[in-house]
What we know:
Domain Malate synthase N-terminal: 31-73
Strand content: 15-25%
Helix content: 40-55%
Strand order of the largest sheet: 3-9-14-17-18-19-20-21
CATH architecture of the largest domain: Alpha-Beta Barrel
Low-confidence stretches: none
Radius of gyration: 26 Å
Cofactor: Mg(2+)
CATH topology of the largest domain: TIM Barrel
Shape: globular
Organism: Erythrobacter sanguineus
Number of strands: 23
Binding site for glyoxylate: 319, 419, 444-447
GO molecular function: magnesium ion binding; malate synthase activity
Amino acid sequence: MTEMTTxxxxxxxxRLASFLETQVLAPLGRDAEAFWKGFAALLxxxxxxxxxxxxxxxxxxxxxxxxxxxRAGKPHDPAAYKAFLTQIxxxxxxxxxxxxxxxxxxxxxxxxxxxxxVVPILNxxxxxxxxxxxxxxxYDAFYGTDALxxxxxxxxxxxxxxxxxxxxxxxxxxDSAFPLASGSWADLAGRDGITLAxxxxxxxxxEKGALLKNNGLHIEVVFDSSxxxxxxxxxxxxxxxxxxxxTTIADCEDSVAAVDAADKLLAYTNWLGIIxxxxxxxxxxxxxxxxxxxxxxxxxxxxxxxxxxxxxxxxMFVRNVGHLMTNPAIRLxxxxxxxxxxxxxxxxxxMDAVFTSAISTLDVEGHGRFGNSRAGSIYIVxxxxxxxxxxxxxxDLFDAVEDLLELxxxxxxxxxxxxxxxxxxxxxxxxxxxRDRIVFINTGFLDRTGxxxxxxxxxxxxxxxxxxxxxDWLKSYEARNVAIGLKHGLSGKxxxxxxxxxxxxxxxxxxxxxxxHLRAGANTAWVPSPTAxxxxxxxxxxxDVFAIQQTLPExxxxxxxxxxxxxxxxxxxxxxxxxELDNNCQGLLGYVVRWVDAGVGCSKVPDINDxxxxxxxxxxxxxxxxxxxxxxxxxxxxxxxxxxxxxMAAKVDAQNAGDPLYTPLTGNEDAPAFSAAKDLIFxxxxxxxGYTEPLLHHWRQVAKAG
Length: 706
């Protein structure tokens, strides 16, 4: 039982209250009593508004459901549909011409282009790895992945043959991005022989290397003949260190399982460690205890002989929870309850906004060891907003948080996830609602597809998931997101991002395909690991994104975006239906069992073909909604779903057989994990916006209660 205490009429977990007062407010010199009083007033204002916005979501969805139900069996009428969406206020008028006015944005976001990591905030080791992924070894990235087109390394220590192939590939990169005035890097005899074709690319000298810059990104060519690699290298080059993850999102949302006060306290404690610069994590590896801490800055001597530094760590965003969920860590006043018990839970997104911003104020006011934002800003990604009203609510909330924390207006910047259909269809108006604090828009196939299915749930059966990737709405969504961002002035001021490469073991394929994100105009894109960030950084050396952005067309209209991905005229075979159902059930079970039983919100989950994919709640949303849609329209039956779940449970059990802490699904069909999987499907139609959180949180709490 959580011990609660009372602050300004709020019932709050006592550990959370103590944490904020002693670890955050005291170092800031803020009065705790005044803070809690202000927080209570903020909640009194924003909780009713939050509830009203959620009610509007449900009202709009009910009207859309009724519209499709009334037209069941009739051909879809795009013109009538668009007029209907306008009539009910789902589509709003476009704002007049405007440019965003965001100021005090760090260069990693505004004027540099490069990879972005997303990392679960509950895992300190992963969080440190991501923060330290600002610089990565290109040699290690090639040696350990299939991005190098060479025979794999032989077991038993360093494989000199593969190492030689890595060195050749590294020289090819240097010749491409940093050509010498004459000859090739392969012919270089030593550090003193570097004469670049473009002298401005030379930035300075580090202790052991040369610092170079191309398309805004740095690399360090490390010369060290005392290392095994450098000793056998003609020029003495031991490695090429690549500036990799410019930015990282510490995630409180889709990639974590945070359902109570203890989970939230861990999230906020880890964020505090990042902001203060003292986060550390010890772990066993190879029979030794290792301790990981944050990396320091990279020192160098510039061409004018002055001493300079470059950031050694990724610039950190924190992703707050959306508007839907509440959390029992803090409860509103309830006169009918016992003293300290409290009434209803407060919205978790409001709690995140206040707590993560309060912690980040330590950075703004200079209390961190390293510092995060050199521009004095706090960067919050806000997911799962539906339309401009919800964006305006977030803007007002951040105003109120700034006032509560005595911060200048627009210190808190916002990243808008374009992952809900009502946001995509009204993206310009959404940007306008946060125009003086926006630093980020991002597309995401999985959540956006989940909302696409749920919004049009009653229109008819949807295409198979694979076919959706080639559908008109998705192509329009990806292109419009970039074009609308550029039209309203994001280039040079904010990030326009693309989604995740989900397969961390398929780096060769990533290197072929993910450069397409740059060519589409995105100045950042998500990668699943620090190694992937180092490899993806090479794409930003190959292409000048900001030059590409100047060539892209104006945004297209809404017709293609509003095309519903219905499987009209498709007659699937039984084998095709079973294949799709099994694929969905296997992915759903493989993710749910880790979320519910182990509290792991993001991990490499084997798919039905045993390929490890980085999965989070967005994956689950599309899988569960797709099955629910086919079930609703009679493509499949409940018996078929249960048969698939049973067979796929055995497969997931086999895939996890090597985990001594794993509890099998088979034989535990009434346990929380399998029960959650069934609920996600059979209650999928009625879930708000098709979100998985309410059911996952319930069953995780059941599992934690034992």
